[in-house]
TrEMBL record:
BP-aspect Gene Ontology terms: negative regulation of DNA-templated transcription
InterPro entries named in the record: Bact_HTH_transcr_reg (IPR050679), Chorismate_lyase_/UTRA_dom_sf (IPR028978), Tscrpt_reg_HTH_GntR (IPR000524), UTRA (IPR011663), WH-like_DNA-bd_sf (IPR036388), WH_DNA-bd_sf (IPR036390)
Entry superkingdom: Bacteria
Full protein name: GntR family transcriptional regulator
Protein's UniProt keywords contain DNA-binding: yes
GO MF annotations in UniProt: DNA binding; DNA-binding transcription factor activity
SUPFAM superfamilies: Chorismate lyase-like (SSF64288), Winged helix' DNA-binding domain (SSF46785)
Pfam families: GntR, UTRA
PROSITE patterns, per the entry: HTH_GNTR
Keyword Ligase: no
Species annotation: Streptomyces alboflavus
Amino acid sequence: MGTTQLESVPEPKYWHLKTVLSEALDSEFAVGEILPNERDLAARFGVARATLRQALEQLELEGRLQRRRGVGTTVAPPRMGVAVGSAQGTWPGAAGDAWQPADSELAPAPAEVARALGIDPDEPVHTVRRTRVSHGQPVAAELLYVPAGSVPDLTAIDAPAGAARARAVLRELGRLALEGQDRSVELGSARADDAKALDRLPGAPVLVVTTRFLAGGRTAALSMATYRADTCRLTFGDQGAVEIHHGPEQQAS
């Protein structure tokens, strides 16, 4: 058999521009400063606006830039650390959980969620919405799916609606004997509702952490947590906990 010689692939223009822009951010711009508009930047660096957008998107993904509604593109602040997610052996809503319940509704879950939970598509599911704020900035939004069968003692009288009902679902879920958890993480794009909750633009890069909570030999709950990819770097510790590191300078306890 013959061998195939891989040809050298030239560096894409946007990638070279990303490096040049990164150096300019370090030397010419302060944290929070608004960048010039795309037309001016493209003219300065002698590139097409499409090439510029690719470079800006890459810098946003790397956490160097932030696109803000009604403001424009700004230089991102240094990343700060904050621990999130529930530790192995604890349910969402347990003591020390920094997530804030916002709302809950009872309705059939999306088809893909029902399959992950191992339930019939028409089985009612409590969808608990929670948010996570760090240093005054929204960093994550979560949808926690809890089949009605996992919390059979929950009644409308206990908690009719809103955050009170979300807390009631979490309380009843915590009564189960947790057998284990498993997690996965993937890069995605912010949907309209996620973008609004995280103060991002639709389509902005996000990290989606999916967690299955196991009890009674089945999936008792499913969490889909969406994190801002521009400010979050996820690491998994020895116990499986998820941490967000915004930079080496600060670590929140």
